[in-house]
Design goal:
heterodimer; A: mainly beta; 7-stranded mixed beta sheet; 11 strands; B: mainly beta; 4-stranded antiparallel beta sheet; globular
């Protein structure tokens, strides 16, 4: 079975540009998460969705960040305008519905490494 | 307060020996889950082992076992017979609330421990 698929794997952009990161969760998973990993702050949850509905976006740093999940098989994380401090690895993860598998286990994508110059 | 604390920034172990990676957690919720993930230098996050707060026995998955001490709020990962391929960053994580709760799937991660296995 295909795992969580993220694109792009690497993105280098200049400050002020718009960045869009994409994620395709594992088919049948009800939950989708966006995490950010930096050396200073470790792994932080930005936002997560249940059945395409945003449940908790309290981790989104500021209004420059937005996330959407228009359908069960696709999500985007957008940064506009980007800043150097947004440089990080952004992980998308999905999780199956309650009652299946290990409760709350996250299946991670390979991450998108963003560098903002 | 930190919800997940990993006090060992780095650990070294000789190949074929066992190693324990420490993790303590903080929660007032009686229902929670504890996870360990491995992140090799390639960057992907790999699930290793899971322990539910109501599980009576310590979890085991092959060479991995979780030393769960509920009263002490610790969930240490034990890797037996270390291999060179075990060299990686290891993260402890916690889900607060039971399956079906609003925090389902929302994991809080520790800062990680870098494990280096020497030949």
């Amino acid at each position: 079975d295909a795992g969580v698929i993220q694109s792009p794997r690497h993105e280098v952009t200049e400050m002020g540009q718009e960045v869009t990161l994409r994620c395709k969760p594992i088919s049948g998973h009800d939950y989708l998460f966006w995490y950010r990993q930096t050396m200073m702050r470790g792994l932080e949850l930005l936002i997560y969705f249940n059945n395409n509905v945003p449940i908790d976006d309290s981790g989104m740093p500021e209004d420059r960040f937005s996330a959407k999940m228009p359908n069960a098989s696709f999500s985007t994380l957008k940064i506009q305008p980007s800043e150097p401090r947004d440089s990080a690895v952004y992980f998308c993860a999905s999780s199956p519905r309650v009652g299946t598998g290990r409760a709350g286990e996250l299946f991670f994508g390979e991450g998108s490494r963003l560098t903002v110059l | 307060a930190q919800k997940i604390t990993q006090t060992q920034p780095g650990m070294f172990v000789q190949e074929k020996e066992a190693v324990t990676l420490d993790c303590t957690y903080d929660t007032s919720d009686p229902s929670y889950g504890l996870f360990w993930y491995k992140q090799p230098s390639s960057g992907e996050m790999i699930f290793l082992i899971y322990q539910g707060s109501y599980d009576q026995q310590n979890a085991t998955e092959g060479r991995y076992s979780l030393n769960f001490q509920k009263a002490r709020k610790s969930a240490n990962l034990v890797i037996s017979a270390s291999q060179l391929g075990d060299s990686a960053m290891y993260f402890c994580a916690m889900r607060e609330g039971g399956a079906g709760g609003t925090s389902y799937g929302k994991l809080t991660f520790g800062q990680g421990t870098i494990l280096t296995v020497h030949p």
